[in-house]
Amino acid sequence: MGMYPRFLGTLLLSVTLLCIVEGRVHYYDFVLKEANFTRLCSTKSMLVVNDSFPGPTIRVQKGDTVYVNVQNQGDYGVTIHWHGVHQPRNPWSDGPEYITQCPIEPGANFTYEVIFSDEEGTLWWHAHSDWTRSSVHGAIVVMPLNETGFPFPEPNGEEIIILGSWYVDDDVNEVVAEALEDGSDTPRSDCYTINGEPGDFFACSNETTHRWQVEYGKTYLLRMVNAAMNAELYFAIAEHSLIVVGMDGSYVKPIVTDFIMICPGQTMDMLVTANQSHGRFYMAARQYDSVRPDVTDYDTSNVTAILEYKGDYTPPAQPIFPSKLPTYEDLMSAVYFSSRIKSLANSDHPIDVPVNITTRMYITAEMNTITFVNDTGDERSGLGSSLNNVSWVNPSTDVLLAYYRNKSGLYTEDFPDFPPSLFDFVAEDLPDSIAATTQGTRVKVLEYNEEVEIVFQGTNVFDASEDHPMHMHGYSFYIVGTGFGNFDNETDPKEYNLLDPPKVNTVSLPKKGWVAIRFKASNPGVWFWHCHLDRHLSWGMNTVMIVKDGGTPETSIREPPSYMPPCNYASKIKLRPFHHTVGRKSK
């Protein structure tokens, strides 16, 4: 550690000189420590960055590089992920614990090198260890180059809105760890938040409700992040239309809508014109719940903020609530909204959809129960989840280091391209025997520049089908098709959209349905694939993709930094403490 600061200074100088042509270099300090916050009439201490919730916004221009020095002054290990940043050839700074690094120990620090390339729009950063991201997250704004500008009229201003989850419990990680230890369900949030505030529908929240002041006649760029832990959310502004112009750091064809549906992990850019009479209007969000109707234990809170016009006028006693905000279980509104999203796909923002597919995968996402032995030696049956019937288990050393150093015994290169058995995945009352699953640290290996198609298939095992927001690290991908029922490899590909499919890093796999994506494996490294519902991530709905080097220095993983956090810190939440025995759920 003694040589590290001098090495970092030399490295930063070298990179600064290199990036004079390629882009600017920025520096941020993130200090992680506990701070007190009062919500819902109670005060608790939680880990945050720079004493703020949400954390600071990172602002860059397309192609820039950012160095973030993370100082962990908290009580447990933490990692940070730069969600949607492709990090070309640089998985060392991607962030997921035990995938590309081990946690930054309490009292230690680690500097991330965040390399931007073709991203443009709104992205975000968040903790990628335990459930710490519930309080450790913030926005990333990637501005276009000066010579290109926005593909729409320059807005008069911008507003960032981060949708989040609030837990009354002092230590969410402790609650989750206990739930995993005894096999029970993970906690539900007590309310949702807009920029850290529940809104004035809740007690003790009137004075702190987030307010956005606008001027009549002006158009604003609204940048939105769904940082909620386990919920897709509907959002609307009373009496105002939204024009969606971007998603996940890529531009889309403008669509005018009264509401949006945004998945955990997704970001959206929208234009909002202040064209109503002077007044106050609620911005509101509520959960879109895709599980079966008799399951009602989800967070039914309505989180609000207030859009208010500047000027000399007497405001109404109560802001207007958005009448077109869909209800909690409105499936068709979610499907209709998502179906309208298309890539901009013009000469200034072209797309490159792979058409010469060399690897095809068909991956089922399902819920399971697993019999395991907990830390006290007791055998228990608990909730689990899987991809292609493999429930992920974190290794003791991160996969990236094991791969790069050619360490054996930490993972196997046999993640299956297809489920172990084929059946009617979306049928009602599937037999309990189908729920049997296996645990392992099994990865998928791809050759450099392979063109890949993955079809994710939702299942109704345990009558527990719901949407799964699937997120891919290190890449964006094209959504070429989606539908309900079982994927038909003869007929469904005939309906693929190869002209202007949306380019995203997170996609919602629909309840009892499928989604097809394509990408080119041109970014060598170790990259995490997972459901962005953290309860499913904790239960094992994850895998890892290793993309091999391309044979030249320019197509190979960069050398690791001189210092990486050591792998001797035990995570509070174990993913998971199974001992490779399988059980079934009885009805």
Automatic annotation (TrEMBL):
It comes from the Eukaryota. This is Laccase. Its EC number is 1.10.3.2. Residues 1-23 form the signal peptide. GO terms for cellular component: apoplast. It comes from Rubus argutus. Its cofactor is Cu cation. It catalyses: 4 hydroquinone + O2 = 4 benzosemiquinone + 2 H2O. Belongs to the multicopper oxidase family. One of its GO terms (biological process) is lignin catabolic process.
